[in-house]
Amino acid sequence: MFKILSMAMIATSMCLPSVAAAETYPNGPVRMIVGFPPGGSSDIAARVFAESMSKSLGQPVVVENKAGAGGNIAAAEVIRTKPDGYTVLYATSGIILGPLVNPAANYDAVTDFSPVAVTASNPLVFVVNKDVPAKTLAEFVDWAKAQDNLNFASTGAGTMTHLPAAAFIAEFDIKATHVPYRGASPAMVDLANGNAQFMISALSEARAMLEAGRIRALAMTTTERVPGYPDVPTMKEAVGTDNFVMGGWQALVVPRGVDPRIVEKLNTAVNDAVVSEAVQKQFAPQGTQLVGGTIKEFTEFMRAERVRWKKIVEESGATAG
């Protein structure tokens, strides 16, 4: 009996540090890793959420940029960290998409991360360089089919700016070369300068160039026209297909193995940010939709996204190149 009680006491004592760690979390700064350069929509959004979450958690949430490989470098770094909740990833749709086209990514978003919450969703817009003669998407398709040296830009292989464009050129039998960049800013600059002719971009990342008249919007990947852009049709209106109803999303995830109680605290902090008037004011002008929600909802969403985009990758033949 004494031996059994002793073993039970040892087992209980081993659990105490974990319980204490979860109850006192966080008792120090939290690192929020972003897989894209400063100034892009992901970086800006991460900083807004980090500031709000710092207030909810009572500790600083510090943003660090680890750009490259469409966010895969940042994802891989976060996976290698200790699963204690003190390193989180501000992820984009690329966390699901990247490994589907790039085996070198060497991770699985569904099994290697614990979902926290979706933070925001951005409309996507089909944009072209201002010197492209087509004024509508249908005209663009006809024009593009007659070209043999088109380039389309993206913010990296396996991102939500790459795979929709790859699917588009496959569906409409257009020949174009994918040119991946390390983020939205350099991609937009090259698009505006004519080094790329078209791109499917997050609206928030295209706004400045659109307003400057250096690029033109031909269609939105939304079910309805976007407020602020009433003259830009949806993809279905423009070319008659439902295949391009999609959006770029952002979310918070942590390495697999983080205590569920810590994940719940992070989820609460994200949801506090989503309903914050200060946060809403910062996102409203960009056309960004704040999301939030439960861990369960995000888990199911990630699994559904992987199924959907795996099929798109297979049908389009998209690669990391």
Structure in words:
This protein has helices at residues 2-24, 41-57, 72-80, 94-101, 109-112, 137-145, 163-171, 184-193, 203-212, 235-239, 260-274, 277-283, 295-316; strands at residues 30-34, 61-65, 87-92, 113-129, 150-154, 176-180, 198-202, 215-220, 247-255, 289-290. It starts with a helix and ends in a 5-residue tail after the last helix. It has 13 helices and 10 strands. Helices cover 46% and strands 20% of the residues. By secondary structure, it is α/β, with parallel strands linked by helices.
Features:
321 residues; alpha/beta; D-Maltodextrin-Binding Protein, domain 2; 2 domains; 8-stranded mixed beta sheet; two-stranded parallel ribbon; 13 helices; 10 strands; 20% strand; globular
Describe the structure in brief.
This protein has 321 residues and is of the alpha/beta class. The protein has helices spanning 2-24, 41-57, 72-80, 94-101, 109-112, 137-145, 163-171, 184-193, 203-212, 235-239, 260-274, 277-283, 295-316, and strands at 30-34, 61-65, 87-92, 113-129, 150-154, 176-180, 198-202, 215-220, 247-255, 289-290. The strands form two sheets. Strands 1, 2, 3, 4, 7, 8, 9 and 10 form an eight-stranded mixed β-sheet that branches. The chain has a two-stranded parallel ribbon with strand order 5-6.
